[in-house]
Amino acid sequence: MSKVTTKSMLKKSSGKTNQKEVCCKYCDKVYNCHSKLVIHLRTHTGEKPFKCDICEKAYHSSTILKTHKNIHKGKKPYKCGKCEKTFRTVAAAKRHEQVHTDEKPYKCEVCDKHFRHNCNRYKHMSIHYRELPFECKLCRKGFTERFDLIKHYTVHSKKPFKCSECYRAFNQEDDLIIHQRSHTDKKPYKCSLCDKSFTNSSNMDRHMLIHYREKPFECKLCGKGFMQNKELKAHYSKHKNMKPFKCDKCDKAYLQEAGLIVHQRTHTGDKPYKCKVCEKSFTSNSQLKSHQITHTGEKPFQCNICEKSFAAKRTLIHHQRIHTGENNIKQHKKTHLPKPAT
After folding, report:
1. Phi and psi at residue 99, in whole multiples of 5°?
2. Which residues, other chains included, contact 185 with Cβ-Cβ below 8 Å and sequence gap of 6+?
3. Is 286 part of any domain?
4. How does pLDDT run across 250-262, given as a tens digit for each residue?
5. Backbone phi, psi, residue 170, to 5°
6. Most CB atoms closer than 10 Å: which of 5, 112, 125, 202?
7. Per the domain annotation, does 143 fall within a domain?
8. Which helix (H) or strand (E) holds 170?
9. Are 191 and 207 contacting, i.e. CB atoms less than 8 angstroms apart?
10. Under a CB-based contact definition with an 8 Å cutoff, are residues 283 and 271 in contact?
11. Whole-model pTM?
């Protein structure tokens, strides 16, 4: 049997709707130029001639390969017009921008509910068809959304997946598997340019920046570049006495422009980050994340002495003073202050 290729299929897909359009005879899709049809036909043949020279992943078009390479370079060239977030693809930036609007273009085919993203509509549709794709690995109960599954895990335990080598525990089995590699020599993600190996793909991607000398995280005060965001944050401490980003409404000033943008929302009342559960809005993404924990019941901040867990980091810090005796020292100072002279 002869192999099906794009070239052989082009002969079959010569159907034309008019002088400028060409049609695929296998799925009836119409394109306004021959080159687009060639790219589309590769989805039928499975051909992927464009190969990444870093991780060897292959794609059916050069455009998709170019977008993929941004992962290795740490580039996020597409910026949201409403906030400071950046994205690797145009599609991801457009999806994100809907967060700042009330637009919900995707309607459920069964009921009147509308959604910002098609993937959310798809998850919702499973309610009508009783599909429960997210299954608990402890009791086999099914859920329509991953968010509900994570919330459900708290019924079994705070963190049911416990490491047998140390005290750490995780909500998800995948996180435990990645963590357990730190106790072994298993490093399945290998750099294609040198002999270094890593326990997870994100660490490997960060390492790849060294070979390309890419420094995508730039200091806005002195222009110095860094390969990792944490290095940039550490660098900013050198400028701690400099706060060039000043608010024009009050006397507050900030080290970074992002801090000023968040602060200015207190003057404008703008709250672009909205909770999908209760629809409360917040001025920053970090405030939204802290709030969302109140719905899930999660307590991610664990005391390393007594293993008690808390929903907020500040509550954990306050609790840890019980172990250090800091609270007692402060109380002692308060009760033994010298009386003012009369």
Report:
1. -60, -35
2. none
3. yes
4. 988 887 778 888 8
5. -140, 155
6. 125
7. yes
8. strand 169-170
9. yes
10. yes
11. 0.31
Burial class (CB in 10 A: 0-12, 13-18, 19+), 6: buried
Residue-level pLDDT at 171: 72
Q: How many domains does the chain have?
A: 3
Question: Do residue 111 and residue 166 come from a single domain?
Answer: yes
Contact 291, 297 (CB under 8 A): no
Q: Confidence class of residue 336 from pLDDT cuts 50, 70 and 90?
A: very low
Within 10 A of 246 (CB to CB), how many other CB atoms are there?
A: 12
Residues 144 and 122 in one domain: yes
pLDDT at site 300: 75
By residue range, what is the domain housing residue 111? 106-183
The answer to whether the beta carbons of residues 171 and 150 sit under 8 Å apart is yes
Structure tokens at 154: 């708290």
Phi, then psi, of 337 in degrees rounded to 5: -70, 140
Q: Is the dihedral of CA 313, 318, 319, 321 positive or negative?
A: positive
- Amino acid found at 279: E
CATH of the domain at 258: 3.30.160.60
Burial (CB count <10 Å: 0-12, 13-18, 19+), residue 117: middle
The pLDDT value given to residue 250: 92
Q: Is 274 helix (H, G, I), strand (E, B) or coil?
A: strand
Instruction: Give residue-wise pLDDT tens across range 53-102.
Output: 877 788 888 888 887 777 777 777 888 887 878 887 777 787 777 777 77
Residue type at 68 in one-letter notation: H
82 lies in some domain: no
How far apart (Å, rounded) are the C-alpha atoms in residues 281 and 269?
A: 10
